[in-house]
Amino acid sequence: MDLLSVIRRWHYRDRLPIREIERRTHLSRNTIRKYLRSETLEPVFACAVRMSKQDPFAQKLTNWLMLEASKSRKHKRTGRRFHADFVALGYTGSYGRVAAFIRDWKAEQQKVKQTTGRGVFVPLSFQPGEAFQFDWGEDWAVIGGRRIKLQVAHTKLCYSRAFILRAYPLQTHEILFDALTEAFRVLGGVPRRGIFDNMKTAVDRIGQGKARQVNLRFSALVCHYLFEAEFCNPAAGWEKRQIEKTVQDARRQIWQEMPNFPDLTALNAWLETRCLEQWISLRHVELPGNVAAAHAAEMPHLMVPERAFDGFVGHTKRVSPTCLIQFESNRYSVPASFANRPVSLRVYPERLVVAAEGKVLCEHSRIVTRFHGLPGRTGR
Fold first, then answer.
1. Cα dihedral angle (329, 333, 336, 341), rounded to 10 degrees?
2. Domain limits of the chain?
3. Are 286 and 158 in contact (CB under 8 A)?
4. Which of 200, 203, 285, 351 is the most buried (most CB within 10 A)?
5. With left for phi above 0 and alpha for psi between -120 and 50, is residue 129 left, alpha or beta?
6. Residue 84 pLDDT more than 50?
7. SS3 for 232?
């Protein structure tokens, strides 16, 4: 997945020829052309699942290696000794597999020491179109007569300091995709890098140092918009201090003077207008002029996407005998011909699409019941 994203970014954004990509990746030109011609952002590789003889003993070997690491050099067991001990436990593999596992484990430990011992340099200045920062905040608004806590997506260009806010009821994958898509629309394009914290809608697992197991659908969005995703160290908000300050400033400059709204659509339209007004009124902290002038200078350096990312999250549902499917404690109707049959449910921020057999069966407005509101209160 990461290699496909890099190939697309080199070809479509950096304009590298296929010969140069071949030299860098050591892939054949036919394979590179196949990736570039395909519209697929999530490649599926057919491969047989084979169980290694070493898999049942991998965790035990790791534990042994960690125990041996605390011993002096003269008292450590050798690879031959490890292999002999495994054979006594029923291992039927070769010594070479055990030796390779030990080499890989030691290399990983050395890499971790180098990463944690050196520290990370975070640039304080950015070039036009180089990066953007993203973060979530929480604020309250009056929607339909109720005071409701909302999740606010903040996106900011690092060079021009232009920013955009959008409010949502939840923090989910499909809402994150919609927030970034709308942000790129308002900001006029996509920078080369995106700086995020380790939010669960993007990172499935945090590894040692900068190693991250990125969510597959988030990787598809990164591959579509051709930017490089970077994640901050845990509990290191200063690595994206610009957007952290925007979250604080927006609470004082925008949310305190917010009127009542009939729905979220009206609220987000008002937020977009207020952000554009702030670009004009705020002076840039480093460049001459205001934020709007700096944004106009940065616009030619942003990549304008050809189309928006189809940011749905798919689920497989079985239709009940009463022609209903359930999602988030709500039931939605499906044509009677698909009763007791599986269908595909595509979840968007504001609607649900039910599909089967390569066609769309029906659409429903999404009912969100997990608003954090206080009934009966209409003021701040």
1. -40
2. 2-37, 58-112, 131-301, 313-365
3. no
4. 203
5. left
6. yes
7. coil
Cβ neighbours of 26 (radius 10 Å): 6
Position 262, amino acid: P
Tokens (6 digits) for 380 = 């701040």
Residue range 232-287, pLDDT digits in tens: 888 776 777 888 888 888 888 888 778 899 999 999 999 999 999 999 999 998 88
**pLDDT tens profile 156-207:** 999 999 999 999 999 999 999 999 999 999 999 999 999 998 899 899 888 8
Matching residue, tokens 């970034």: 180
Q: Are 162 and 279 in contact (CB under 8 A)?
A: yes
Find where tokens 């003993």 sit.
57
Look at residue 377 and tell me whether its pLDDT is greater than 60. Answer: no
Per-residue pLDDT at 13 = 86
For residue 10, what are the CA distances in angstroms to 15, 96, 221, 226?
6, 38, 16, 9
Contact indicator for 311, 174 with CB cutoff of 8 Å = yes
The predicted structure's pLDDT at residue 47: 55
pLDDT for 106-137, tens place per residue? 888 887 766 655 544 444 678 999 999 999 99
Q: Facing residues of 347 across strands? A: 313, 352
Residues forming beta bridges with residue 353, ordered by sequence position:
346, 363
Cβ distance 345 to 314 under 8 Å? yes
DSSP of 260-296: -BSSHHHHHHHHHHHHHHHHHHSBPSSSSSBHHHHHH
H/E segment holding residue 193: strand 193-196
Instruction: Estimate the crossing angle of helix 95-118 against helix 79-88, to 10 degrees.
Output: 120
- Whole-angstrom distance, CA of residue 333 vs CA of residue 321: 11
CATH of 313-365, one of 2.60.40, 3.30.450, 2.40.50, 2.60.60: 2.40.50
Burial of 71 (0-12, 13-18, 19+ CB in 10 A): exposed
Cα distances (Å, whole numbers) of residue 206 to 179, 212, 215, 228? 23, 5, 11, 17
Count Cα neighbours of 142 within 13 Å in the Cβ-side half-sphere.
Answer: 12
The architecture in CATH of the region 131-301 reads 2-Layer Sandwich (3.30)
